[in-house]
Amino acid sequence: MTADTAAPAAAPGPRALTWQRRRASVARFWRQYRTHRPGLFGLAALLLAALVALTAPLTAGADVQSVTDAPGGPLESPSGRFPLGTDQFGRDLLGLLVWGSRVSLLVGLLAAVLSVAIGALIGITAGHFRGWYATVMMRVTDWFLVMPTLVLAIALATVMSRSLGTIVLAIGVTTWPTTARLVRAQTLAVESRPYIERARALGGGHWHIMSRHVLPNVMPLVLAQTTLIISSAILSEATLAFLGLGDPAVVSWGGLLQDAREAGAVSSGDWWYLVPPGIAIAVVALAFTLCGRAVESVLNPRLGVSR
Fold first, then answer.
1. 125 near 210, Cβ under 8 Å?
2. How large is the C-alpha radius of gyration of the chain?
3. Which residues, at least 6 apart from 200, have a Cβ–Cβ distance to it below 8 Å?
4. Which of 98, 227, 258, 282 is the most exposed place for a label (fewest CB within 10 A)?
5. Is it the case that residue 213 has pLDDT exceeding 90?
6. Closest by alpha carbon to 218, among 132, 137, 124, 141?
């Protein structure tokens, strides 16, 4: 070999290869996701809602919830000073709507994460261990499936203290059965593959198989399920707040609807008190649903979700 011969390039290490594959996977996912126009619309709406929620302290101000320092009169109609009018205390409804986005989105996200975490844990363990454990877990899941979710959430929110944590817990522990069923079915399909048998033959334990082989294969399903559950969690939070079971010390979209009902906005025709929170709830719930369907279609094209 001559001195001026170029040395061969060093092969990338395992970690570099892993990150390279992940970046390629993310790029491939985004290319496929961009072909779903409803999913792009939902993503744009969610980014706008997240921007509004994050900048609420700057745009609306923390004093927007103050009753004693309300800038307007009770139930003023929309005007140049108050684009969405005022509530029964004279507070700016546009500021309340912006501030309420923080609570509604936060509760929806946390409740969905809790629900999916419970469902994924039960689904993976029931699909892996089987036997009497799987039988018991699936019977418990069936019981939660046949029980009305909203009724269970109302019962939990009634017997516990009125706080955001209670709302998150009430929604999370009552909406996990569907995820558990889906994840268990996917776990059974994964564990029937030959490489799982090879992993067991090489001494792989239960934790190794579930964390290294099963969990990565069910994560796309878990991700798609999370985006779909967030929309229902936001609707559930609004329903509980509308029924007076939310935290009275914070402002949320459902709480605004509850305040409008108590102020008699329905009978008096004060539409500006009712319509904006309802539209905000519907738009965000629809946006999460569109994103969830698009993610589901990209990660599992065999489902045949329409674009």
1. yes
2. 24
3. 209
4. 282
5. no
6. 124
- Nearest Cα neighbor of 255 from 229, 272, 278, 271 is 278
- Burial of 75-95, coded b for 16+ CB within 10 Å and e otherwise, reads bbeeeeebebbbbbbbbbbbb
pLDDT tens digits along 8-39: 555 666 677 777 777 887 788 888 888 889 98
Cα–Cα distance for residue pair 293/307, rounded to 1 Å:
9
CB contact at 8 A, 64 and 90 = no
Report residue 307's pLDDT band, with 50, 70 and 90 as the boundaries.
very low
| Backbone φ and ψ of 92, nearest 5° | -70, 120
User: Which residue type occupies 40?
Assistant: L
Q: Which token pair is 129? A: 């261990």
- 288 token code pair: 């999460």
Planar angle of CA 25, 28, 34, nearest 5 degrees: 140
Nearest-5° angle of CA 120, CA 235, CA 153?
65
Q: Which residues is 86 bridged to in the sheet?
A: 92
- Report the amino acid identity of residue 92: D
- The full length of the chain comes to 307
